């Protein structure tokens, strides 16, 4: 069985945000799957997705600090600057983290580890709403 849904996320500030519950609230059909996979794809190039620590918020702020240092704004070699100093760094951060995730489904639930959650990684100062394509496949 295959199912596909589009989920629009509310705009979030720049940073790393847990969105697991926001996704699950919009996927009641997940309960129909005994075993399968869920693919989450973000339709943007200046935001990304990852899975990491879901309990301590300092992990999310440390992620933001690390990526801001690793890919700083206003580098003189950036030529893609028409949309502001955060635009090209946002594209690079997105490419490093990735735009899709695959998560196993077991007995109608995501089979994440106890301390794992899905992050929206918002790399723009004013990114706006973000759209996810969720594809469920299984039995």
UniProtKB/TrEMBL annotation:
Q: Out of the domains of life, which is the source?
A: Bacteria
The record ties this protein, via SUPFAM superfamilies, to: YjbQ-like (SSF111038)
Entry-linked InterPro entries: UPF0047_YjbQ-like, YjbQ-like_sf
Q: Name one Pfam family in it.
A: YjbQ
Q: What is this protein called?
A: YjbQ family protein
Which family is this protein grouped under?
Belongs to the UPF0047 family.
């Amino acid at each position: 069985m295959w199912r596909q849904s589009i989920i629009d996320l509310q705009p979030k500030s720049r940073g790393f945000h847990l969105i697991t519950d926001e996704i699950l609230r919009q996927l009641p059909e997940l309960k129909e799957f005994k075993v399968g996979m869920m693919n989450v794809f973000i339709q943007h190039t200046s935001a990304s997705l990852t899975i990491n620590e879901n309990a301590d918020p300092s992990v999310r702020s440390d992620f933001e600090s690390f990526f801001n240092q690793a890919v700083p704004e206003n580098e003189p070699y950036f030529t893609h600057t028409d949309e502001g100093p955060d635009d090209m760094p946002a594209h690079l951060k997105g490419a490093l983290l990735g735009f899709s995730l695959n998560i196993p489904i077991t007995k109608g639930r995501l089979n994440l580890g106890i301390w794992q959650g899905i992050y929206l990684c918002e790399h723009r100062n004013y990114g706006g709403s973000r759209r996810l394509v969720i594809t469920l496949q299984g039995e």
